Amino acid sequence: MSDLLDRARTVLETGTGLDEAGVLAILRLPDDDLPAALQLAHEVRTRWCGPEVEVEGIVSLKTGGCPEDCHFCSQSGLFTSPVRAVWLDIPALVEAARQTAATGATEFCIVAAVRGPDERLMAQLRDGVTAIREVVDINIAASLGMLTQAQVDELVALGIHRYNHNLETARSYFPRIVTTHTWEERWDTLRMVRASGMEVCCGGILGLGETLEQRAELASQLQELEPHEVPLNFLNPRPGTPLGDRPLLDARDALRAIAAFRLALPRTILRYAGGREITLGDLGTREGLLGGVNAVIVGNYLTTLGRPPADDLALLAELQMPVKALSDVL
Length: 330
Ligand code: SF4
Fold this sequence. Notes:
By secondary structure, the chain is α/β, with parallel strands linked by helices.
């Protein structure tokens, strides 16, 4: 362990992430060494990202009925999972943005369960962004699936400052999880977004049955992309989806992954996303925030309930982690 930690310590000094083999070694650490790895990951996060935690709210503009078949996702219209297609109206969207801003969050991400946006969705987004801007001061992000170059350009013109599109899993495992589109199609969208100047938010979901090697592969593919933010999801098996019977990721494996992804991506915003409550519980949530995570989503996720925002904000206050202010990110 000491050799490994010595190597990992260079991340602290140089701000350069561990390579794939180094990430794999962290993912394989015995339980006894996990606290030291989390402590190092926390030091790396504090040194290269600062003490602040970024808070984000998400809202679903169009829920369910997606034509794609991502096997973990209850929003696919191809499974028997009980999420039906529903559109949110503009007043409800504005109210969600207002409530998100009231928590102190700086980010409000508008999400749609689609392969990519059609004209109806782009029109809703245009109207929604305009309406939000009239009454709420918050950064607006979007997650609308795969984009064309013209759509990327339009999002830039609308002032969308960050775009989320997850790689979900390692390239080598992706065909086992999604058959209706390819990993490369996702990568193409991400490259266009990055070239546009919008911030790139790109992460994945762990616990899909991928090997530790494939988890390390995903970390290395994210390194190549250099996203501004990496949301880390843990599978919350949804009834009716092909992965509905999968066991939860072991909490210690989830914490090893948090440390490993932080050591791979020392300067990136590493966000707790879906599945952390069920995978880690309260104690693990705290350990992750002291082990490399520096961003949270407040309130509810897209298809499952999260913790009340007040609980997360109280935990951040207790850990003496300031919430990043809007003035810092504009
Ligand atoms: S993850 Fe996205 S693209 Fe895949 S089925 Fe769910 S909503 Fe559709």
